[in-house]
Amino acid sequence: MPGYTPDREAHLRRLRRIEGQVRGLQRMVTDDVYCIDVLTQVSAATRALQSFALELLSEHMSSCVVDAARNDSDGGEAKIQEASAAIARLVRS
Amino acid sequence: MPGYTPDREAHLRRLRRIEGQVRGLQRMVTDDVYCIDVLTQVSAATRALQSFALELLSEHMSSCVVDAARNDSDGGEAKIQEASAAIARLVRS
Amino acid sequence: MPGYTPDREAHLRRLRRIEGQVRGLQRMVTDDVYCIDVLTQVSAATRALQSFALELLSEHMSSCVVDAARNDSDGGEAKIQEASAAIARLVRS
Amino acid sequence: MPGYTPDREAHLRRLRRIEGQVRGLQRMVTDDVYCIDVLTQVSAATRALQSFALELLSEHMSSCVVDAARNDSDGGEAKIQEASAAIARLVRS
User: Fold this and answer.
1) pLDDT digits (tens, 9 = 90+) for C59-77
2) Cβ distance A19 to B19 under 8 Å?
3) How do residues B29-51 score in pLDDT, each as one tens digit?
4) Is B4 helix (H, G, I), strand (E, B) or coil?
5) d(CA C93, CA C46)
């Protein structure tokens, strides 16, 4: 099946779980759940998003960055700079 | 209208927007969008969750913590400790 | 002894330890220690700074914020806003 | 001059500046500077450490990771995993 990868399915499962966490937050707000308990769930959803990002980044380096290091005319420098900028956005978010 | 607060509606609007961002991430993964562009959107969703948390925390301090400082028998210390632990979870997530 | 507090001494001890970590990083760079090992120490120093900030913030809320909630003419709102802004800087740094 | 690199000098300058920030924090604590102002400086030092880490990581990828992608028998996978773990520590610190 073209384009299908096990990774993609795993990513979609993770993102659906995160979507479920965000919908859970909406129910908590609607039900007037105690603020600190809502915050605990926000921290959990934030961590889940960051884990997803780290997984994605690791795969990107194993494939695109490695490939660029071997084949690009600049020795992969453009892809490294692009990945570094993405890492900086993650660290600062 | 009992229980209704303008804050709650604003919170729900924010969370629905974040849910939309997470669904957008699923479409990006399904459409095989370039990894770095997905990461940029993950960073945006993470920041939106953290802004929501900061807003919630600020309101919590203006209401519950202030109230506890004036009326609780421990001078609000338990609520301060609870808020501090929530802040630590945010900083570390 | 006016102005002396056990907290202050504890804070100075922590900060001297963090200063030691930063000097250790300089030695690692001078000795050409492997980059990943330097990064591990940078993460440790960053976490130590954040723990110090969380401690400071917790004390600030137990003293200044509680005090303002009881005595300030605005019910402590200005101090709450100021603390919230400091928390936002921590979360985003 | 063996071992000397412009990068190393730049790194040492950055780290000495961060050491200066941490010593400045000690003076602030000794002088009983207002807590929120100390926190602002802690956030600045934390960000400086993180920028240093991001710079180090970017250089590491441009040199070691690229080199491993071309020459290591595992196609650089071990170095990618090692870098990914370091990035995770940074994001979570």
Assistant:
1) 999 999 999 999 999 999 9
2) yes
3) 999 999 999 999 999 999 999 99
4) coil
5) 10
Percent of chain C past pLDDT 70, that is, above it, reads: 95
| Mean per-residue pLDDT of chain C | 93
Reported as a single tens digit per residue, the pLDDT across D22-74 is 999 999 999 999 999 999 999 999 999 999 999 999 999 999 999 999 999 99
For chain A, the domain total comes to 1
- Answer whether residue C93 shows pLDDT above 90: no
Residue where the block lists tokens 């974040």 = B18
CA distance A61 to chain D (A): 7
Q: Is 50 exceeded by the pLDDT of residue A43?
A: yes
Task: Kindly tell me if the per-residue pLDDT of C4 is higher than 60.
Answer: no
**Does A1 fall in a domain?**
no
Task: Decide if C27 is inside a domain.
Answer: yes
From chain B, which residues contact C within 8 Å (Cβ)? Answer: 50, 53-54, 57-58, 61-62, 65-66, 69-70, 75-77, 80-81, 83-84, 87-88, 90-92
A24 inside domain: yes
Q: Nearest CA of chain D to the CA of A89: how many Å?
A: 10
Tell me the DSSP string of A44-84: HHHHHHHHHHHHHHHHHIIIIIHHHHHH-TTTTHHHHHHHH
Residue with tokens 């330097």: C38
Structure tokens at B86: 């929530």
Q: Which ipTM value was assigned to this complex?
A: 0.92
Query: In this structure, what token pair is assigned to residue D54?
Result: 């991001």
Q: CA-to-CA distance for B68 and B77, rounded, in angstroms?
A: 8
Residue A25 Cα distances to A19, A28, B87, C16, angstroms: 10, 5, 18, 41
Q: Does residue B3 surpass a pLDDT of 90?
A: no
Range of the domain at B43: 6-92
- CATH code (residue D40): 1.20.58.1000
**Using CA atoms, how far apart are residues C84 and B14, in angstroms rounded to an integer?**
19
Record: contact C66-B76, CB cut-off 8 A = yes
Describe the crossing of helices C35-60 and B77-92 by its angle, rounded to 10 degrees: 160
In a domain, residue B11? The reply is yes
